[in-house]
Write a structure and sequence with these properties.
This protein is about 45% helix and about 0% strand. By secondary structure, the protein is mainly alpha-helical. The protein has one domain: Cytochrome c-like domain (Cytochrome Bc1 Complex, Chain D, domain 2). The structure holds heme C.
Length: about 130
Amino acid sequence: MRPLGIGLALGVLAIGTALGPSKAVLAQAETNPQEFSVATIKRGRQLYTVHCVTCHGKDGRGDTEMREFLKTPPADLTDDQWVYGGHDAAVYDAIYTGREERDMPGFRDKLTEERTWSVVSYIRYLGGERP
Ligand code: HEC
């Protein structure tokens, strides 16, 4: 029985490690730790174009054809109305966790913490903020 017991213990450890620290973590900073610079915004724009533009649109207003296909219309990211909160950490968490049941995918496995913050910077830019 002993080897089985050890095997089980190791198995539990392995699962624990697999669920442990991931590449991106829920926003630990209340405010965006990256400098709001042209470089960060450009980086955010590249990532936004790859991952977000289909639903939220080039201008971030969410007025895309995807409206027809989704359970919830993609949010307008340029206004100051926020379903999940408009401060940096809330926007970060909306991207990280997503709202799968409402067709906003979570990006925890696709974007690192650093990249997620760059996207947050680009959302600020879309909302009219300038460095
Ligand atoms: C498959 C379509 C789809 C994609 C791709 C997508 N979103 Fe969304 N997003 C949605 C929908 C739908 C909502 C509205 C969810 C709700 O209201 O509950 C939403 C909501 C959000 C919100 C919350 C807004 C608020 O008012 O609180 C943020 C922030 C957001 N998306 C950012 C992004 C970013 C950044 C990306 C790319 C990394 C992205 N989304 C990719 C569909 C999408």
